[in-house]
Amino acid sequence: MPVTPFSSTEKYEYHHGFATYNESEAVPGALPVAANAPQQAPHGLYTEKLSGTAFTAPRHENQQSWLYRILPSSSHQNFEPVSDTSSQSLVSPSPQFGKHFNAIPNQLRWDPFDFDKEVSWIHSLHLIAGAGDPQMKQGLGMYIYAAGASMPEKSAFYSADGDFLIVPQHGVLDIRTELGNILLRPMEICVIPRGIRYHVSLLDNEPARGYILELYQGHFQLPELGPIGSNGLANPRDFQIPVASFIEDYENTEWTLYGKFGGNLFEAKQHHTPFDVVAWHGTYYPYKYDLGRFNAIGTISYDHPDPSIFTVLSAPSHPHGAGTAMADFVIFPPRWLVAEGTFRPPWYHRNTMSEFMGLICGNYDAKGAGKGGFQPAGASLHNTMSGHGPDMQTYEKASTVELSPQKVGEGSMAFMFESCLMVGVTEWGLKSCAKVQESYNEHSWTPLKVHWKNPGTRGVSNGEKKNGVGDAKDQSSVHDLK
């Protein structure tokens, strides 16, 4: 099991499982017995239902939780739009149905994104790419975050637009959610579902940076294993769910609640903490996962399998056909390559899916590293049907190297947000961030060499006559075959 690159120790307890029913109480007896909404909830608590799917969603897809809290979440003043000049404003609000998105076929790669030591969680969210519209609950957004400060003490944030899948690259996030606490470190991921309120603190004031995929429709699930069988990839037992934890703060206090709604940010004041859930039970909750626990599957004979074998989480898009994902979260962990007679890096390909890649640490085995290459905290985007693959140096080495068993990715972790949608890039991602590598194509594929050698036994190249013989003989051969 690889050692995760951080020194902090786990400070919270967790339940375990993926998409399983769970119940948790911070005070014994806070959960009612049998009934969900008794006339009087235990200890004078309010009952509140949190619905992540329609009431009538199929049982195996239904995500609902019952919360037992000191005051209901509806108890707040009216929401007002957050001014663009506020220290908590969104740097790049979500475009609507392609507005302000630049849909281009060019391959793109970004240098590492900068830290911003002045801003906290909300203002650190930079929308870099995406497609669709959160108001229609269709599509997804891809973000870079770079925060240098904890959120103000008495504040909370939630997104009504979609589920946040958070991928830390640097720094530890201490996240207090309504349902409990999560400590999120590099080499771990966290999913905070739509509507759940949370507060982000930085551990030891260390700046934090990473990636986010916001899913506007549906929820993530584990991919089907098919012929792999009943175990492998991300195992359900390794997902960690917070244990109920609450704050008592409801007298002579004021909290600010920030809500991301329709791509825009709003704020409301309330005279009690949002983190007053004493107990909860259900199937709708935040969770985290240690990427080091992923059980990679690969070939033990020949050929390079599709990268779908590295899928951790998947959000299907049923209208686009069976097996098609609105969003896949895919990783490229340390693993052994043993395929015989095989070009082992990813092949050159054009994909109906769009591929946004990031690098958490180390070097990705299919691309050159260092300045101007694919670096930790950087990213790349290969859009729908845009050709891509190994750069020239990687190809030359991989096509001639002796094929002994080889372990790749030691000390490295790359990932991919993959979507069936054509992904557009925001103005911030294309221009304002000033991180786009203008020479990406020239650096990677323009230098590729021609290795073609015409064997001279068939075919004509560039108008040359075959073996110096005129067209008449060639034509007679053709007619003879008819």
Word description of this protein:
By secondary structure, the protein is mainly beta. The chain folds into 2 domains: 14-290, Jelly Rolls; 292-444, Jelly Rolls, CATH 2.60.120.10. 6% of the residues lie in helices and 32% in strands. A hairpin with a 2-residue loop joins β17 and β18. The protein is globular. The termini are far apart.
Helices and strands in order:
Elements lengths: L13 E3 L5 E4 L20 E6 L12 E6 L10 E2 L26 E3 L14 E9 L4 E10 L7 E5 L3 E8 L2 E5 L2 E5 L3 E5 L5 E5 L5 E8 L23 E4 L12 E7 L2 E7 L6 E6 L4 E4 L20 E6 L8 E8 L2 E3 L16 E8 L17 E4 L9 H7 L7 E3 L4 E7 L4 E2 L1 H6 L7 H5 L26 H11 L1
Parallel strand pairs: 9-17
Antiparallel strand pairs: 1-16, 2-19, 3-4, 4-19, 5-18, 6-25, 7-8, 7-28, 8-15, 10-13, 10-15, 11-12, 11-14, 13-20, 16-20, 17-18, 21-22, 22-27, 23-26, 24-25, 24-27
Oligomer: single chain
CATH topology of the largest domain: Jelly Rolls
Shape: globular
Helix content: under 10%
The strand line-up of the biggest sheet is 1-16-20-13-10-15-8-7-28
Strand elements, count: 28
How many domains, as an integer? 2
Structural class: mainly beta
Low-confidence stretches: 1-7, 472-482
In DSSP terms (H or I, runs of 4 or more residues), the helix count works out at 4
Question: Approximately what portion of the residues adopt beta-strand conformation?
Answer: 25-35%
CATH class of the largest domain: Mainly Beta
CATH architecture of the largest domain: Sandwich
Biggest sheet layout: 9 strands, antiparallel
Mean pLDDT: 91
Q: Give the C-alpha Rg.
A: 26 Å
